[in-house]
Amino acid sequence: MRIPLRSCCIFRSFISQKQTLNTQRRGLSGAAMRLVQFCRPGDGDDVRVGVEQGEGLNVVDLKAFDSSMPSTVRELLQLGDKGLECAQRALASGQFVVERANIQLLSPIVAPEKVVCVGMNYRDHCLEQNAPIPEEPIIFSKFPSAITGPYDDIILPPESQEVDWEVELAFVIGRRGKHIKEEDALSHVAGFAVANDVSARDWQFKRNGKQWLLSKTFDSFCPLGPALVTIDAVKDPHNLGIRCLVNGDTVQSSNTSQMIFKTAALIAWVSKFVTLTPGDVFLTGTPPGVGIFRNPPVFLKRGDVVECQIDQIGSIINKVV
Predict the structure, then answer these.
(1) For the ranges 38-47, 93-102, 149-158, 262-271, which has the lowest average pLDDT?
(2) Which of 106, 128, 143 is at the close of a domain?
(3) Residue 229 to residues 77, 239, 272, Cα–Cα distance (Å)
(4) Which residues form the Fumarylacetoacetase-like C-terminal domain (predicted)?
(5) In 171-290, where does DSSP find H-type helix?
(6) Which of 32, 124, 273, 305 fits a disulfide with 233 by CB distance 3.0 to 4.6 angstroms?
(7) Per-residue confidence (pLDDT) for residue 10, from 0 to 100
(8) Which helix (H) or strand (E) holds 44?
(9) What's the whole-number mean pLDDT along residues 192-213?
(10) Can you give the pLDDT at residue 128?
(11) Greater model confidence, 98 or 130
């Protein structure tokens, strides 16, 4: 049977698009993993890279598997496919397993070159404050020193009386690039994590000329984790349930489909201005339900427990002290 030429062209176009999407979605090594950084209690200087055997399960010690491997996830990403392929082999070996109860999970990325943040990037969050939908990404930053572990304390600074929560999907750059095309952008992503963009609203809206940096960058104002979930382990990062709970009560509940500028668009935009390098962290914005826009406003106080959850990635739990 002869297939019409037009049908052949459509079929070839479909196959080509599918191959392009598959290439774009593929991570650095094409492996689905959960990378963590950990130390043993009382030995915080001995940071190790591990691979979780599953969410919340035991961890394979990568350096014990191969002593040539680095001690941080950022350095592992700098090795490119070589590092991630080694992590994949370590996970498959089932050897050098450390009991979860015997380790302390750290942030999966520490001391990145950049922490890039995006404001007003959820449609429902814009509606919450009667704000127009941005026409281009609103970019600001945190200092890397704000990053803290997935179960570490959030420290209330004496300089602020209006500290607020913001659950966010974070992603981490795995491949260096500048002027990255949107269609190539996902190949530069190592994976995803959960973040809390803790914010001092008095400094954000009333102080420092209403510049956002100081309000966002107090020590401990960027809990991150619990793992770096590689891009191949996340079915669709833009269709994930995202929630924040304070003392067990749900205060934010939405879906990452509400994001205005998605991962690839953000990479293409920011890489116009700066070179992105392995380990750079992006925080992609928060959904509605933050404390500042409640009536009356609600802020964090000592003793509160904040839990940020994203489907397929996990949760981070931080006590306010």
Answers:
(1) 38-47
(2) 106
(3) 13, 15, 26
(4) 114-321
(5) 201-205, 213-216, 263-270
(6) 32
(7) 41
(8) none
(9) 95
(10) 87
(11) 98
Measured CA to CA, the distance from residue 29 to residue 87 in angstroms comes to 10
- Report the domain count for the chain: 2
Domain that holds residue 89: 34-106
**Residue at 295 is within a domain:** yes
* Furthest-apart CA atoms within the chain: distance in Å: 78
What CATH number has the domain bearing residue 201?
Answer: 3.90.850.10
Per-residue model confidence as pLDDT tens digits over 277-299: 999 999 999 999 999 999 999 99
Q: Tell me, yes or no, whether 120 and 90 share the same domain.
A: no
Residue 28 lies in a domain: no
- Measure Cα distances from 242 to 35, 128, 149, 250 in Å: 21, 16, 19, 11
Strands (E) across the chain are located at 34-39, 48-52, 59-61, 97-98, 104-106, 115-119, 138-141, 147-148, 163-164, 167-173, 189-196, 199-200, 222-230, 241-246, 249-255, 281-283, 305-310, 314-319
- Write down the H helix ranges in the chain: 5-25, 62-65, 73-78, 81-93, 123-128, 201-205, 213-216, 263-270
In whole angstroms, what separates CA 229 from the centre of its chain? 9
Amino acid at 223: P
Mean pLDDT on 111-127? 96
Report the pLDDT value the prediction gives residue 43, as an integer from 0 to 100: 75
pLDDT at 2 over 80: no
Q: Does 249 score more than 50 pLDDT? A: yes
As beta bridge partners, residue 164 has 199
Counting other chains too, the contacts that 64-73 makes at CB distance below 8 Å and 24 or more residues apart are: 64/96, 65/89, 65/90, 65/93, 65/95, 65/96, 66/90, 71/47, 72/37, 72/47, 72/110, 73/35, 73/36, 73/37, 73/49, 73/108, 73/109, 73/228, 73/279
Partners of 104 in beta bridges = 39
Rounded to whole angstroms, the Cα distance separating 160 from 151 reads 22
